C-alpha cells in the first residue's frame, strides 16, 4: 500500500511515521519548504520526501493520500487525485483505525482551544491516561504511533473534518458556529456549517453530541437534519432536564439523571463565553464519570490558553491584553464584550470575508481608539472611521504597542484582538501574540 502525504508539517510527519510503522510505502511531498527539525525525523525514519514541488508521477500512484489541513481542496494536485478516484483523507481519518482509544472531538468557530484544553485538564487531573491532539500540540497520528493512551481529546478544525470518511468521536462538541474561513467554502456559509456537523455524521446511539443551544446556526441545522447521537445541550438562558445551564449563579449539569452544581464565581475562567466552554467540558467529565470533587478543583485552578484574552502586563495602570488567537469577528466580539474599561483596540491582518457590522455597538460603547495593524486596512477604516475619534495605521507590532501606550490614560486597556488571520505580517497568530508581548515588555 502506498501512502502519499501532502504537507511536511506536524500532521504530515506524524502521519508518515504512523504509515511507515504500519507497513505502508510512504512518500512526503511539500510544495513549500520543510522545517529542518521535520526533515531530520523523515531522514532518521528512512521516509522519502521532496520539498518546493509536487512530482505528479510520485503522487498519483498513491493508494491513499493524507492532505494537511492547510492545503485547499482547490489546489491542482488535490483536484487530480480526486479525478483519479484516489481517497484524500485527513490525519484524523488515517490514524483513527490504528487506535482503540476513545476520542472526544471538539470543533467550533471559537472556544474550541479553550474547551479542548479545559477538557484535557479535567480528564488528566482525574488520573485518566489521556492524550491531547488534533489542531493542537503533537500530531494525533504521531501519538498513535508512539504512545498508548486510553482516550484522546482532539481539537478538530473544519478542514480536518472535511477529510473524514468513517471517523467518529465517542463524544463530540460543537462550541458554536459563526462565519469563518469562508474563502475556503466558496463564500457559502451553509457549506461551512455542514462541514462542522461532519463531526457527528458517523456517530451512533451510543455516542454523544454536546452543543450550544443558544447558537442559531446549530439550532437550525439540528431542526433540519438528523444525528443518531444522544444530544446534550448547554445554554446561558435556557434550562434542561438533561444538559448544562446557569441558574441562580450556579452552573448545573444534569446527565443520566445525575446532577452536578458549581458556583460560577469559583470557576477560574472569566466571561460569558467561558461559561459555555466550562459547561461543555464539564459535560464531558460527567460522561467520563469523573468525581465531582475533581471537577470542582480542576475548574477552579485552570490557567487558560496562551494568546486568548491573556493578560500580559499592567503599565502605569493600563492593562495590556493579548488576544492574538482571535482570527475572526466572532472571537473579537467575545473579547470586546468582556472589556470593562475604555479600550484601545489593535485590529487587522488578512480578512477572511469579515462583516464588521456585528461589532458596531460594542465598538461604540467600549473603544476609544483603533490601531490598524495590517497591509490592507480599507474595510476596517470604512466600517469604523466615523465611529471612533482616533484611527491610526501601523505596519509593525512595536509601532502598534507604542501607539497604544500614547493613546491611553490610567485605567484604560490596550487589546490586541485582530479579527483576522496573521499571514500578512507574521508567521502565525502565535508569532503575532509573542511579538505583542515582547513589545509590551519593552515599553
From TrEMBL:
<dbReference type="GO" id="GO:0008764">
    <property type="term" value="F:UDP-N-acetylmuramoylalanine-D-glutamate ligase activity"/>
</dbReference>
<keyword id="KW-0131">Cell cycle</keyword>
<protein>
    <recommendedName>
        <fullName>UDP-N-acetylmuramoylalanine--D-glutamate ligase</fullName>
        <ecNumber>6.3.2.9</ecNumber>
    </recommendedName>
</protein>
<keyword id="KW-0133">Cell shape</keyword>
<dbReference type="InterPro" id="IPR013221">
    <property type="entry name" value="Mur_ligase_cen"/>
</dbReference>
<dbReference type="GO" id="GO:0005524">
    <property type="term" value="F:ATP binding"/>
</dbReference>
<comment type="function">
    <text>Cell wall formation. Catalyzes the addition of glutamate to the nucleotide precursor UDP-N-acetylmuramoyl-L-alanine (UMA).</text>
</comment>
<keyword id="KW-0547">Nucleotide-binding</keyword>
<dbReference type="Pfam" id="PF08245">
    <property type="entry name" value="Mur_ligase_M"/>
</dbReference>
<dbReference type="GO" id="GO:0051301">
    <property type="term" value="P:cell division"/>
</dbReference>
<keyword id="KW-0961">Cell wall biogenesis/degradation</keyword>
<dbReference type="GO" id="GO:0009252">
    <property type="term" value="P:peptidoglycan biosynthetic process"/>
</dbReference>
<feature type="domain" description="Mur ligase C-terminal">
    <location>
        <begin position="307"/>
        <end position="420"/>
    </location>
</feature>
<keyword id="KW-0573">Peptidoglycan synthesis</keyword>
<dbReference type="InterPro" id="IPR005762">
    <property type="entry name" value="MurD"/>
</dbReference>
<dbReference type="GO" id="GO:0008360">
    <property type="term" value="P:regulation of cell shape"/>
</dbReference>
<dbReference type="InterPro" id="IPR036565">
    <property type="entry name" value="Mur-like_cat_sf"/>
</dbReference>
<feature type="binding site">
    <location>
        <begin position="108"/>
        <end position="114"/>
    </location>
    <ligand>
        <name>ATP</name>
    </ligand>
</feature>
<keyword id="KW-0963">Cytoplasm</keyword>
<keyword id="KW-0132">Cell division</keyword>
<keyword id="KW-0436">Ligase</keyword>
<dbReference type="Pfam" id="PF02875">
    <property type="entry name" value="Mur_ligase_C"/>
</dbReference>
<dbReference type="InterPro" id="IPR004101">
    <property type="entry name" value="Mur_ligase_C"/>
</dbReference>
<dbReference type="GO" id="GO:0005737">
    <property type="term" value="C:cytoplasm"/>
</dbReference>
<comment type="similarity">
    <text>Belongs to the MurCDEF family.</text>
</comment>
<feature type="domain" description="Mur ligase central">
    <location>
        <begin position="106"/>
        <end position="284"/>
    </location>
</feature>
<dbReference type="Pfam" id="PF21377">
    <property type="entry name" value="MurD_N"/>
</dbReference>
<dbReference type="GO" id="GO:0071555">
    <property type="term" value="P:cell wall organization"/>
</dbReference>
<dbReference type="InterPro" id="IPR036615">
    <property type="entry name" value="Mur_ligase_C_dom_sf"/>
</dbReference>
<keyword id="KW-0067">ATP-binding</keyword>
<comment type="pathway">
    <text>Cell wall biogenesis; peptidoglycan biosynthesis.</text>
</comment>
Amino acid at each position: 500500500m502506498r501512502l502519499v502525504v501532502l504537507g511536511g508539517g506536524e500532521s504530515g510527519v506524524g502521519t508518515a511515521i504512523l504509515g511507515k510503522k504500519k507497513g505502508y510505502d510512504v512518500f512526503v511531498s511539500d510544495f513549500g519548504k520543510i522545517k529542518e527539525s521535520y526533515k531530520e525525523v523523515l531522514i532518521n525514519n528512512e521516509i522519502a520526501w521532496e520539498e518546493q514541488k509536487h512530482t505528479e508521477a510520485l503522487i498519483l500512484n498513491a493508494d491513499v493520500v493524507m492532505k494537511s489541513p492547510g492545503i485547499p481542496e482547490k489546489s491542482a494536485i488535490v483536484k487530480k487525485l480526486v479525478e483519479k478516484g484516489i481517497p484524500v483523507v485527513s490525519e484524523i481519518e488515517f490514524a483513527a483505525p490504528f487506535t482503540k482509544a476513545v476520542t472526544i472531538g471538539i470543533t467550533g468557530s471559537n472556544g474550541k482551544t479553550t474547551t479542548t484544553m479545559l477538557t484535557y485538564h479535567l480528564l488528566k487531573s482525574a488520573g485518566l491516561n489521556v492524550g491531547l491532539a488534533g489542531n493542537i500540540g503533537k500530531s494525533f497520528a504521531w501519538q498513535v504511533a508512539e504512545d498508548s493512551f486510553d482516550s484522546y481529546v482532539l481539537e478538530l478544525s473544519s478542514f480536518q473534518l472535511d477529510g473524514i470518511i468513517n471517523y467518529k468521536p465517542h463524544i463530540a462538541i460543537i462550541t458554536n458556529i459563526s462565519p469563518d474561513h469562508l474563502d475556503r467554502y466558496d463564500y457559502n456559509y451553509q457549506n461551512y456549517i455542514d462541514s462542522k456537523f461532519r463531526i457527528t455524521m458517523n456517530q451512533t446511539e451510543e455516542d454523544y453530541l454536546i452543543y450550544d443551544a443558544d447558537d442559531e446556526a446549530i439550532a437550525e441545522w439540528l431542526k433540519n437534519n438528523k444525528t443518531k447521537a444522544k444530544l446534550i445541550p448547554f445554554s446561558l438562558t435556557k434550562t434542561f432536564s438533561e444538559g448544562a445551564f446557569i441558574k441562580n449563579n450556579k452552573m448545573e449539569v444534569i446527565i443520566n439523571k445525575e446532577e452536578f452544581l458549581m458556583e460560577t464565581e469559583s470557576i477560574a475562567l472569566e466571561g460569558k463565553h467561558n461559561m459555555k466552554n466550562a459547561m461543555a467540558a464539564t459535560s464531558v467529565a460527567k460522561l467520563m464519570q469523573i468525581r465531582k470533587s475533581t471537577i470542582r478543583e480542576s475548574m477552579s485552578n485552570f490557567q487558560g490558553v496562551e494568546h486568548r484574552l491573556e493578560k500580559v502586563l499592567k503599565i502605569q495602570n493600563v492593562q495590556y491584553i493579548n488576544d492574538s488567537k482571535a482570527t475572526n469577528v466572532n472571537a473579537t466580539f467575545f473579547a470586546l464584550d468582556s472589556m470593562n474599561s475604555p479600550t484601545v483596540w489593535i485590529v487587522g491582518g488578512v480578512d477572511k470575508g469579515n462583516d464588521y457590522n456585528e461589532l458596531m455597538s460594542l465598538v461604540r460603547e467600549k473603544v476609544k481608539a483603533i490601531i490598524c495593524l495590517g497591509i490592507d486596512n480599507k474595510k476596517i477604516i470604512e466600517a469604523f472611521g466615523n465611529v471612533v475619534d482616533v484611527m491610526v495605521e501601523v505596519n509593525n507590532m512595536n509601532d502598534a504597542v507604542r501607539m497604544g501606550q500614547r493613546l491611553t490614560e490610567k485605567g484604560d486597556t490596550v487589546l490586541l484582538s485582530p479579527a483576522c488571520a496573521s499571514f500578512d505580517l507574521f508567521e502565525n497568530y502565535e508569532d503575532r501574540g509573542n511579538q505583542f508581548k515582547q513589545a509590551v515588555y519593552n515599553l
